[in-house]
Amino acid sequence: MGVFRPYDPQGKSTPEVSDPASDHSKGKGAPTPTRRQAELARRQRVNPVLTKKEEKVHEREVRRANQAKAMAAQDNQPERVLMRDYIDARFNVTEILLPAWILVLAVSLLGTKWPLLVEISVFVVWGLLILAVADLYLMWRGYKKLLAVRHPGGSTRGLLMLAVNRALSIRPWRAPAPRVKRGTKL
Question: For the whole prediction, is pTM greater than 0.90?
Answer without folding.
Answer: no
